[in-house]
Batch of 3 targets.
Target 1
Amino acid sequence: MDTTMNSRMEPTVMVVFGAAGDLTWRKLVPALYNLYLDGRLPERFAIVGVARQEMDDAGFRRKLREGVDLHSRRSVTDESTWSGFADRLSYLAGDFTTAETGALLSRRLEGLDREWNGRAVRVFYFAIPPGLMEAAARQLESLGVCRDCSRDRLVVEKPFGRDLASARQLNGLLTSLFAETQIYRIDHYLGKETVQNILAFRFANSLFEPVWNRRYIDHVQITVAEAVGVGKRGGYYDTSGALRDMVQNHLLQILCLIAMEPPVSFSADEVRNKKVDVLRAIRPIRPEEVHRVAVRGQYGRGMVACEGVTGYREEQGVPPDSVTETFAALKLWIDNWRWQGVPFYLRTGKRLRAKVSEVAILFRPAPHQLFPSAAVESWQPNRLVLRIQPEEGIASRIQVKQPGTRLLLGAVDMGFRYHDAFHAASPEAYETLLLDVICGDATLFMRADQVESAWGVISPILDTWESVPPADFPNYQAGGWGPETADLLIAKEGHSWVQPDLPTEEGETEAP
Ligand SMILES: NC(=O)C1=CN([C@@H]2O[C@H](COP(=O)(O)OP(=O)(O)OC[C@H]3O[C@@H](n4cnc5c(N)ncnc54)[C@H](OP(=O)(O)O)[C@@H]3O)[C@@H](O)[C@H]2O)C=CC1
Ligand SMILES: O=C1O[C@H](COP(=O)(O)O)[C@@H](O)[C@H](O)[C@H]1O
């Protein structure tokens, strides 16, 4: 632990709109606390929380301390360290859309500048319900507190719009009020260590890049499975569904990292340009094709981790006849030189067998089979699995000769786990991303055109699903791998899902 604050970093104030909410409590403040423990925050750093709930500074600190105790990867071990952090937290009770709260906030920011003898970097974090983003942006602009393009930033949480039209409208408003370089659209998957490692894996090793194309890769599978249900977020989730909540952002971003061309450098715009190229190359889905390339599901009751759980329609805030999908699987084609003819399968869902996110790259067979057919009875394709969470790591499956006097091939795995290789805990995604905002690095954030292109990919599916309600919901049992139709989707090309290896209690992996 190194709580020496960084004296070379610019003085910074982070204003959190929506500071009494779940995100601030569960993710943002625990992440900032961990940055503090690592000595990664500026020496002069303050957090100003804004929300309508009546609370004083002490109440705000108590609430956030509880959040840190419950959700931080490192707990509070000594009170003086916590106080050193908590002294930087203050609260402003009020509706941020009113002139009164705006004036109080402006005064507080000016006060900090005076105290610190200079204009601080200002980060405005919109941790507010999606419907309030536009009002918050207008208010921020009218206060005139976010006009220095090089020092003032705003962070916009997901969901960024609810379809292409609303995302365009929000982008239009934000870019009319602020410079694009000030806007940080967050997708927390991009802050995950192992998601970032996809780029390191692909572009820092000469071993894999030569085979990373249609000549050697047969197909790609991206799985982001969750064991949890919608919990207390049923009200929000029911207006969203798996396609908007997970595919439009997290899964398509992972796909971009797997499929993008090498950027010239690791600068924000170089990386983002290459990712946008991928989204633009995804073959548009015609409405009449939707049923062939996309599958939806909703969980019914079942067992997860040996416990009985309710179905989606019984969750808090969910209507009993809801037709919102909690599972989505897609088949996408990327129409470019590298990926022509290689299907990309994506699937995500709640209340699946386990929480696990991974990318499986399945390779084509060797061009000439020289072994007798008896030797290759149990042949399996070469594959590479990039495990994002949990037990982050990489495993490749290769064929070897089985020991013995007969020539018989068998598949074995070679791999590494982050934990075994580095013996260090990874930072949470929000730690990485908040530090990047403080430092003004937008590489891991979404640009306007990325967000819109991603909405463009899923729009035909959203439209078709909305116009034709499903007749068979709920169509998968909690605790499985989703509806049978997801297996059929991929079986049409002669493929089957690679079911992730699951950790057992002893830390060994269990066959799926
Ligand atoms: N929670 C999560 O895990 C995740 C959340 N997000 C996104 O983050 C954002 C926030 O989510 P979450 O924290 O869960 O939402 P909550 O509903 O828990 O919190 C919203 C906050 O906004 C405040 N607020 C609402 N209206 C105003 C207003 N006019 N003036 C001042 N404050 C206001 C509320 O406090 P009060 O009523 O006291 O004003 C509350 O503190 C959403 O966009 C969500 O989609 C994204 C990913 C994950
Ligand atoms: O953005 C979201 O992500 C979480 C899953 O994130 P993870 O880091 O736990 O994998 C998901 O539960 C939530 O519905 C969604 O809004």
Target 2
Amino acid sequence: MPPLLQAEDLTVHYGGAPVVAGVSLQVEPGRCVALAGANGSGKSTVLRVLAGRQEADTGTVLLDGEPVRESDPRFRRDVAVSMDGGECFPDLTVAEHVRMVAAAHGLGRRAAEAAADVLDHLGLAAHHDAFPGTLSAGQRQALLLSAALVRPARLLMLDEPEQRLDARAKERLAAVLDAAKRAGTGIVLVSHERSLVEAVADHVVLLASGRCVAEGEPARVLAEEAAPWR
Ligand SMILES: Nc1ncnc2c1ncn2[C@@H]1O[C@H](COP(=O)(O)OP(=O)(O)OP(=O)(O)O)[C@@H](O)[C@H]1O
């Protein structure tokens, strides 16, 4: 069986020196791979390539052994992505927005319950009927995450999901991601939050200037010189 996600030897240039150079990783069901590294080390670029949103100059990305295309219905069914720039419908309530995403991904009659569940888990229990324009930045981030997490997915790709979340919301997020893993979902996590990486990641890929400088078990890799939290 091929891995759920396999990326080999990814390289990306924006003109001059590569911003991603020779990065490889693989994700198995129920496992979380975290991409760590300082600002500008290439984490988001790798994630965009993995998500099919950006072409690499060299290298391959395979989902179940087949090339990834974001427009491919199989990719949209199996992969939930949360990156910067997510939008909410301004005239739908928080619950309506998440319910609609759940329904669009085939949850049918279970959409309302699933939406309520994920919103409660991410700390939005008191905001089901609010409109996105009235939410704080952290609550809005929790809403965007809820929309990514409500739908069934075999693979989650999350770029700094902890952004703007307070300490309790970060703990709730770690619990939700842990539950997703236990249900068999693979996760690629880009994060600047050491506690989140330690709580959820099984394997860390540490980038510096676009290159993998260390990888493996989180405690060991996070002690490396290039680790942002060292
Ligand atoms: N569209 C672009 N055009 C030119 N250079 C870019 C572009 N996008 C990213 N870069 C450069 O690529 C490098 C890697 O950026 P990337 O956003 O992948 O880093 P990152 O590790 O996710 O950083 P951060 O932790 O700050 O989010 C940076 O030097 C950045 O300036």
Target 3
Amino acid sequence: MTLEVKQLSKSFGETNAVNQLSLNLPTGRVLGLLGRNGAGKTTTIKMLLGLLTPTSGEMTWNGTTFHSSKVKIGYLPEERGLYTKSKVVDQLRYFGKLEGMSQKEVDEAITYWLERLEIPHYRHKKAGELSKGNQQKIQLIVTLLHNPELIILDEPFSGLDPVNAELMASIITEEINKGKTIVLSSHRMDQVEAFCEYVCILKNGDVVAEGNLNKLKEEYGYRNLIVEDTEPIKSVLNTNQIDFERKQQGIYVKVKTEEEAFTILNLIKSETGSIRKFQLLEPTLNDIFIERAR
Ligand SMILES: Nc1ncnc2c1ncn2[C@@H]1O[C@H](COP(=O)(O)OP(=O)(O)OP(=O)(O)O)[C@@H](O)[C@H]1O
């Protein structure tokens, strides 16, 4: 049970927007599709949605050729795609019917989702009268109304205030728990890390990292040793020519092994007399992204 993409490419004239993209996403799992601006994320999503024809390559869903018309897909675009002059309820009914839902099914789903997103009072408002964040919520209802099996979320948190971002996060978690297969594209590494078991990082159309996030972290080869940001510790590191970075949580030193971390800690202890606290943390997705996608 997998979404499988094999050597998928898309060129626009001379530009290789996506180049030989291959990935495996087991159904019921979440993939973070990452990359800097222009890396090829939207082009990949558009090929999944059937909006762009690949130049070459293959996509399969549970072993058979993937076609957007045969898989129930929910897509949350980064740009709003609502009819601003039409009432919320009318366009939700319209989108639901386009997905083959009956009047009863669509009305039940609209009531459920308006309540779930805490906006039942917007039912009869025109979409254009709603704030950007509330339009995003309506767009999320369009995405989930027909109970899709594959959900594609492009920057789902953009434009949401912290309370609505929490609500969005809890809905994504619910969909994950329902066993939905999700592709999430975002520039926010912390959010991707919170939801995604798998990642695919694109750089100028090429895949530069792909697979299980924990495995990628293991393969990355570095961990972060964090010690207090004090003058004596900085001085020890400088004297011993150990590279470090100052962040809000303290001084970060990249180490390859636990032994290397303890060698540095012993050095600090012997030269400053004590170490009040330290942490040895696994690399973050942000570390991997910066190294690979830069
Ligand atoms: N219709 C098009 N015609 C020509 N070039 C295109 C077209 N669509 C995308 N491209 C090019 O393909 C490359 C990938 O673009 P894409 O929109 O997929 O990037 P992205 O990763 O989604 O970027 P962003 O994070 O900025 O949205 C870019 O170089 C872009 O200019």
